[in-house]
Specification:
About 25% of the residues lie in helices and about 20% in strands. The protein is of the alpha+beta class and about 575 residues long. The strands form four sheets. Strands 3, 4, 5, 7, 12, 13, 14 and 16 form an eight-stranded antiparallel beta sheet that branches. A six-stranded antiparallel beta sheet has the order 6-15-8-9-10-11, with no helix packed on it. The chain has a four-stranded parallel beta sheet with strand order 17-18-19-20. The N and C termini lie far apart (about 100 Å).
Length: about 575
C-alpha cells in the first residue's frame, strides 16, 4: 500500500506518514501544500520579472567611442562615421572617456552616420562639452522624422509620427540648472539622451541622468516611415554647426529605462564606456530647475510698471566690477531723447532734455557707458555736450549716420552705370542676382565716387569739435549702406567676376576687401584725419564674424580702428 507523508514544519521535508489523521489534519496539510506551491510559483514569477526589468540588455544600433585605431569606427560594426562626403573638418581630443571628437563651426559640416530605421521607439545618446556658440545642431534624420538641437528657444526635440504628426518639444532656457544655457557651457562634459517610445506615449530629453519636469511630452504613433533614413550629426548651415566636443555617441532602435540612462551618466563621470545591461541603479530625486526671482533685477512695481525710465534705472542694483579691470566702456546706442520722454504724452522738450541728460550721466557714471554726444546744435545736443565737458574723465561717444546724409552718394540712384551691380546683359541686379530697378553698389566702383559723404561728415565734426573742451573717445558709424552680395550675384556681374579672378580671392573675401577700401577711402579717412580726432577710435556697427549676410570679417574688420593692438568686432550695440 502506498504511504502518504506530510511535510515537516521545520525543513519542509516529508518524513511523517499520514496515518490516523483527522479531517482537520488532512485539511491543514492540504492548505500548507497549496501555500508552499504558491510561494514557489511567486518566487519564480519575481525572478522572471527581475530578469526583465533589471537584467535586460539594450544593445545600440551604433556606438562610436573614438578610442580605437580607426577613429570613426562603429563598435557595433554597422556604419563607420563618414567625415569625407561633406568635407567635415574635425580633430581628436582628450575626453572624459579617453578620446573624443572635436568640431568647430568654422570648418565642420554634416557627418553621415548611416541609416537609422526605427518604428515604435528610438534613443540618441551622447556626451558633449559645448563651446560658447549658441545655436547647436546635435542630430537630424534626412527626412525630418527625428532631430534635436538647442537655440535661443532652448532645447528642441522634433519628431514626425503617424499619431501626432510633426511635433516639437521645446524647453526654454527660462530657469536654473538644466533649464539654463549656462549649465551646458560650464566647461564640463554632459550626458544627453533624446528618446521616443510609442508604448509609453512619450518623447523625453534626459540631461545628466535626469528628465526634469517639462523635458517630456505625450505623443503617439510610429515614427514616420521614409526612404530617406540617413542620420546626420552636426549641420551644414554655418551658424547651426556644433561648436565643441562629442564622445560616446550611441543610436538605438529602442528606448532606454531611466535606470540605465542614469547608469551611463555615472559611468561617464567615472571615465568608463557605457555598459548595456540594466540593473538596480537607484536614481536620485530630480534637481531643481526653477527658483525664486531676484526682484531687484526688475523695474519697480513689476509686472505693472509705472515708474519713469530714469527712476527705474536708478532703482537697479549697480554692476560690480573687479578692481583694476580693463573692460572697454559700453557704447550707448539708446535713444536717450525718447527715453527721457520726448514725443511722449504730457512731457515737454524741456523736461525731456533734463531727464535724458540725467540718464546719460547715470549710465556713464554707474553702468560703464560712455557719455552719448550729439554733433548738432539742437537743445539736446547742447545739454549733452555740457555734460561731456564737465566730465572729461568719462568716455564720450557719438554716432554718425551715413545713410541719412543729404545727399548720400553711396545710396544714390543717379551715378554712372559702372557703379552698379549688373549682369552680362547690362541689367542692374539685386544682391541675390535677380533683375532689379533699384540700383546696388558694385564692388568694383571707384571709392572717389562717394567721397562727398566723408566730406559732409568732416564739415559737421569740425563745428562740433569747437564746442568740446575734451576729446571724443569713439565714433560709431551706423553703416548698413553697402549691400551684401551673394556669390551668385557677384559671379553674374562680368566686371566683378573678372576683378575677383585677378585678385586671387574668393568672392566673399574680394567683396569684403572692396567694402573696406570704399568705406575707409571715401568716408572714414576724410574726417578721421581732423587734428581733434587724433586719439579717437572709429568703429562701424555690425562688423563681426557672422558667417551670413555680413562682409567677410577678415577684410571688413580693418574698417575699425585698432584698440589695444587688435580689431574688436561690433556685433550689436543695442541693449536687449
Amino acid at each position: 500500500m502506498t504511504k502518504m507523508y506530510k511535510p515537516s514544519v521545520i525543513n519542509g521535508s516529508a518524513t511523517s506518514p499520514i496515518t490516523n489523521l483527522t479531517t482537520k489534519d488532512v485539511r491543514k496539510s492540504i492548505n500548507w501544500i497549496t501555500k508552499f506551491l504558491l510561494l514557489i510559483h511567486l518566487m519564480l514569477l519575481i525572478g522572471s520579472l527581475t530578469d526583465g526589468a533589471y537584467a535586460q540588455t539594450y544593445s545600440p544600433r551604433n556606438y562610436w567611442t573614438f578610442n580605437g585605431s580607426t577613429f570613426n569606427k562603429d563598435s557595433m560594426n554597422n556604419y563607420n562615421l563618414d567625415f569625407t562626403s561633406y568635407g567635415c573638418g574635425y580633430s581628436a581630443t582628450n575626453s572624459v572617456v579617453s578620446k573624443g571628437l572635436a568640431l568647430s563651426p568654422t570648418n565642420s559640416n554634416n557627418i553621415n552616420a548611416g541609416n537609422l530605421v526605427v518604428d515604435t521607439a528610438f534613443a540618441i545618446e551622447f556626451l558633449i562639452k559645448p563651446g560658447p556658440k549658441f545655436h547647436l545642431t546635435f542630430f537630424r534624420r534626412l527626412d525630418g522624422a527625428i532631430g534635436g538641437y538647442i537655440s535661443n528657444e532652448g532645447w528642441v526635440f522634433y519628431t514626425n509620427t503617424t499619431g501626432s504628426g510633426v511635433d516639437y518639444l521645446k524647453v526654454p532656457f527660462d530657469g536654473i540648472g538644466k533649464k539654463s544655457y549656462g549649465y551646458l557651457i560650464d566647461g564640463n562634459w554632459h550626458h544627453i539622451v533624446f528618446q521616443y517610445s510609442k508604448n509609453k506615449g512619450l518623447k523625453q530629453i534626459f540631461i545628466d541622468g535626469e528628465c526634469p519636469s517639462g523635458f517630456s511630452k505625450n505623443v503617439s504613433g510610429n515614427v514616420a516611415a521614409s526612404s530617406n533614413t540617413t542620420m546626420f550629426i552636426n549641420q551644414g548651415v554655418t551658424y547651426e554647426r556644433f561648436d565643441g566636443q562629442y564622445d560616446e555617441i550611441a543610436f538605438y532602435n529602442v528606448s532606454l529605462p531611466q535606470t540605465l540612462i542614469y547608469k551611463h551618466y555615472q559611468e561617464a563621470l567615472q571615465g568608463k564606456a557605457y555598459s548595456f545591461t540594466n540593473n538596480t541603479t537607484t536614481v536620485p530625486p530630480l534637481s531643481a530647475i526653477t527658483g525664486p526671482l531676484d526682484m531687484t533685477e526688475f523695474a519697480p512695481g513689476h509686472p505693472n510698471v509705472s515708474a519713469p525710465a530714469l527712476e527705474q534705472l536708478k532703482s537697479f542694483p549697480l554692476p560690480r566690477y573687479k578692481p583694476g579691470n580693463t573692460l572697454l566702456k559700453n557704447f550707448n546706442w539708446i535713444d536717450l531723447a525718447y527715453m527721457g520722454g520726448r514725443f511722449q504724452t504730457g512731457v515737454s522738450d524741456a523736461t525731456a532734455i533734463t531727464t535724458s541728460t540725467s540718464m546719460n550721466e547715470e549710465m556713464a557714471k554707474n553702468f560703464n557707458y560712455m557719455i552719448m554726444g550729439k554733433s548738432n546744435g539742437d537743445a539736446f545736443g547742447t545739454a549733452w555736450t555740457a555734460l561731456a565737458n564737465a566730465n572729461p574723465q568719462l568716455g564720450l561717444g557719438i554716432i554718425t549716420l551715413r545713410a541719412q546724409l543729404n545727399p548720400c552718394n553711396i545710396r544714390s540712384q543717379s551715378l554712372a552705370s559702372s557703379n552698379y551691380l549688373q549682369n552680362s546683359s547690362g541689367q542692374t541686379i539685386d544682391p541675390s542676382g535677380n533683375p532689379s530697378s533699384f540700383k546696388y553698389w558694385r564692388p568694383t566702383a571707384t571709392p572717389t565716387t562717394y567721397e562727398n559723404d566723408g566730406i559732409q561728415v568732416k564739415n559737421n565734426l569740425q563745428w562740433y569739435l569747437t564746442t568740446l573742451t575734451r576729446p571724443i573717445t569713439m565714433i560709431n558709424e551706423n553703416g548698413e549702406v553697402f549691400n551684401w552680395g551673394s556669390d551668385n550675384a557677384l559671379a553674374a556681374d562680368p566686371a566683378v567676376a573678372a576683378a575677383k579672378a585677378a585678385s586671387g580671392l574668393d568672392y566673399q573675401s574680394f567683396q569684403g576687401r572692396k567694402f573696406y577700401e570704399n568705406e575707409t577711402q571715401s568716408y572714414r579717412d576724410k574726417f578721421m584725419s581732423l587734428p581733434g580726432l587724433a586719439n579717437t577710435k572709429f568703429t562701424e556697427y555690425a562688423v563681426d564674424g557672422f558667417p551670413q549676410y555680413r562682409m567677410k570679417y577678415s577684410e571688413a574688420r580693418k574698417v575699425n580702428s585698432l584698440i589695444n593692438g587688435q580689431y574688436y568686432s561690433t556685433p550689436d550695440f543695442y541693449p536687449r
